[in-house]
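[job 4471] stage=fold_predict status=RUNNING
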Amino acid sequence: MSGTRENRSAESVEIGKIGVLSEIRGTREVMEELGAVPNYVLAPLTSIKIGGPADWFLSAESADDVAVMNLIAKGRGLPVTIMGNGSNLLVSDRGVRGVVIRMEGGLAAVTEVGGGLLNVGAGVRLPELAKFFRDQNAGGLEWGFGVPGCVGGAIYMNAGTSRGEMKDIVESVFVIGRGGIVKEIPAPECHFAYRTSRFQRTGEIIVGAMIRMADRPYDASGAEESLRYRKTTQPLDQPNCGSVFRNPPGTTAGQLIESVGLKGYRIGNAQISPKHANFIVNLGGARAVEVRDLMNLARERVRESHGIELISEVRLFGDWGDDGRE
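[job 4471] inference complete, writing C-alpha cells
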C-alpha cells in the first residue's frame, strides 16, 4: 500500500475490460482465469479445524487481486467473504456460498517506511508482527505473542488483551471501498472501541495498515508473562476458535459461563473447555452446528441466570440456512 489517502488501484487492471469479460464469459471460466479454486475445503485453514467448502477460494497477493475479484463476483451476484488466519470464526458445515478471499504474498508482508512506521499487509499473522517488533527492539506489541489471527482481522475487531489493543499501534488502515478504490483511513476515523471498529459496519475490505512501533524498548519480561498466562489459562493445545464472547463490563464471559455450570459441557465432539469456559474446543471430528449450539446454550443460560446478553466475538461464516442465529 502507498501512503496516499486514495489511489485508483482498480484502474490499473482496466475495470471496463473486466466488466465486458464478466458479461460475455461463464462464471467458472472467469473465476478460474482469476486464480480462484472451486469447492475448496476451509476446515484446515481454521484454528478450530471445522467447516465445509467455499464455492470459490482465492489466495490474493495484491490489492488489485482483491479489488478485481470483489467487483466481478458482486457483478455476478456472488457474495464475497474475507478470511483471515481462520481464528475467531466458525465456518458452517454446509460451507460458504460465493467467493472466499484469503490474503497472501504482498498482502502478508511487513515493510519499514521509516520514523518507526511499518507498512503491514492484512494477511500478516499477529505473532509474526510481534516478532518483528521484538527484532527491532521496539515496544508496543508484547501482548501479540500467542494471539491468533492476522492483522486485518485484528484491526476489524480491535483485538487485544489487558496489556494493549490494536488501536494503540494503528496509524491508518488501507481499505478497498466502492468501485475498487484503495483508500487510507486515519486511525481516529476507524472508531476503535472494545472489540469493535467501523469496519464491522461499513463493508470496507481491509488490505493493510500503517503500524507505529512504540518509542520505547521491547519489554521481554512483559512478552513472556503474556504468553505464559495464555498457555496456563487457555486451551492452546486443542483446536479452538479463540475467545467466544466479549467480556461484559465488570466481569468476564468465562466466569459467567462457569457460574451456570457449563464449564466442560459438551455437545457431540465440541466442548466448552474445562480449562477456560470462554473457549470451545474441537475434541476431534466436531461439527460446526455443535459449536454453534454450545454458543447458544451458554448465551441462554447466562441470560436466564444473570440478565446479561453475551455478545459473540466469533463470526458465523457461511451458509447456516435458517438456524444460524447469533
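[job 4471] summary: The domain at 7-103 is CATH 3.30.43.10 (Uridine Diphospho-n-acetylenolpyruvylglucosamine Reductase; domain 2).
[job 4471] exit 0
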